[in-house]
Prior knowledge:
Layout: H1 2-5, E1 10-13, H2 21-26, E2 33-36, H3 46-51, E3 55-58, H4 64-79, H5 82-90, E4 108-112, H6 116-127, E5 131-135, H7 141-145, E6 150-151, H8 154-160, E7 163-166, H9 180-184, E8 190-194, H10 203-212, E9 215-220, H11 233-236, E10 240-242, H12 251-270, H13 283-299, E11 308-315, H14 325-337, H15 349-355, E12 359-366, E13 377-379, E14 382-387, E15 390-396, E16 399-404, E17 408-415, H16 420-430, E18 435-442, E19 448-455, H17 461-467
Parallel strand pairs: 1-2, 2-3, 4-5, 4-7, 5-6, 7-8, 8-9, 9-10, 11-12
Antiparallel strand pairs: 11-13, 13-14, 14-15, 15-16, 17-19, 18-19
Helix pairs in contact: 4-6, 13-14, 14-15
The protein binds nicotinamide-adenine-dinucleotide and 3-phosphoglyceric acid.
InterPro entries: ACT-like_dom_sf, ACT_dom, ASB_dom_sf, D-isomer_2_OHA_DH_cat_dom, D-isomer_DH_CS, D-isomer_DH_NAD-bd, NAD(P)-bd_dom_sf, PGDH_ASB_dom
Catalytic activity: (2R)-3-phosphoglycerate + NAD(+) = 3-phosphooxypyruvate + NADH + H(+)
Domain ACT: 417-467
Amino acid sequence: MCTKISHCDALIVSSGTKVTREVFESFGGRLKVVGRAGVEIDNVDLSAATEHGCLVVNAPTANTVAAAEHAIALLASMARNIAQADASVKAGKWQRSKYVGVSLVRKTLAVMGFGMVGSEVARCAKRLGMNVIAHDPYAPVDRARAIGVESVSFEDALSSADFISLHMPLTPATSKMFNDDAFSKMKKGVRIVNVARGGVIDDEALLRALDSGIVAQAALDVFTEEAPPKDNVVVQHEKVTVTPHLGASTKEAQEGVAVKIAEAVVGALKGELAASAVLSELSPFIALAEKLARLAVQLVAGGSGVKSVRVTYASARSPDDLDTRLLQAMITKGLIETISSVFVNLVNANFTAKERGLRITEERVLLDGSPENPLESIKITVEGRVKDGKPHLTKVGSFGVNVSLEGSLILCRQVYQPHLIGKVGSILGDENVNVNFMSVGRIATLEQAVMTSGVDEEPSKEALKKIG
Ligand SMILES: NC(=O)c1ccc[n+]([C@@H]2O[C@H](COP(=O)([O-])OP(=O)(O)OC[C@H]3O[C@@H](n4cnc5c(N)ncnc54)[C@H](O)[C@@H]3O)[C@@H](O)[C@H]2O)c1
Ligand SMILES: O=C(O)[C@H](O)COP(=O)(O)O
């Protein structure tokens, strides 16, 4: 493929095509945009795209209904053993008592991930007479309430659901989040549907849950490895119904993503601002804006979600001399990409924010002093500056801190008291996680504080739980 495509300016792919660093290198810098005709862009090497100055755009809404309909189809066919019964009759058997199913009406469905697909599944399930609850730490509570769905905690969703349908993106936080611990909290006999990403389920843990009867049935459209090996024990399990990543495979959805991605690619090729056109003086602030937003959205996890964000730029430049469109696009990117499968770039940032009901208001603080430096600081809920060309976090809420935003950070709110720093250090040390710096921002002695630790390695979820 690499020889043919080296004469192209744009590439459009589905989830099945891996756009690797080698593909970008084979273009010799000619490739200007990669279009992902779908939602998830986990098949595109984004750091290679950035290094090669290539925009990546996707079509995040055109297959939503198709995916939701597929989830409902799998839910209903699993509950009534359609796939297993079909195979049985085709094999010349007539086993009516073997395939007695369960009803959906008045049963509780937990929708995990209340975004475009999850909320559509919830609407469909309510029309089928199901009681629907949702778990999504970043979705505004009123989004679920608006359609009569109760937002609940992860544990409450697991313990009260008869059916669980997964609709969150595959991120470091959601990878294998349905593991032995999660299955142990579920109601015995629960039924699970996954049309999100295979990686959110720990396959071995699912197998143990199926064999122990905790999980009565599973219906899977997505897999950790696609196509899964023929002898994959989960795929071959008699209690499992499987389809080959068909969530978006309707004529209507494929036409929809085709039109949307063509428009996005043309828009990108004509785009006002391309990544490579970034004014070099703003470059360090681009990274700062995105990192502050990624941090801010995680700080509100479990709250009512992010609906409106106020951004304050402190600068000695007059407003007319400082174009913040790019900074706002990067803030949108940080706020949405951290919790979603949508890929945000300069071309789609405004549209994506509006589509998710995210309001970003900007204000300026005009500083005295030399306009040499384009910006003194950017404040979201967190505040940061650029020091020696690197993004720095300087405030979390009302707490002053001073930490580099390079690499991974752990932030802990606490009442500052002796031994806490040592305890956090030893929990991380037990996991061979190297702490490259630690700082505590506090208002006064023995008052509320924020401890910020920079770490070289990603600590385990268990370690973070212990620190919490
Ligand atoms: N099987 C298919 O063919 C198919 C089709 C469409 C979408 N998908 C996949 O389904 C997933 C959802 O798609 P979408 O368009 O609804 O995306 P979306 O971004 O609209 O929704 C994802 C939701 O997950 C939530 N989320 C993030 N982290 C979470 C966590 N830890 N716990 C609970 N919720 C969390 C986000 O807040 C967001 O609301 C994506 O992974 C997408 O790739 C698959
Ligand atoms: O992420 C998506 O949009 C879905 O998984 C569909 O992927 P596809 O483009 O391979 O159908």
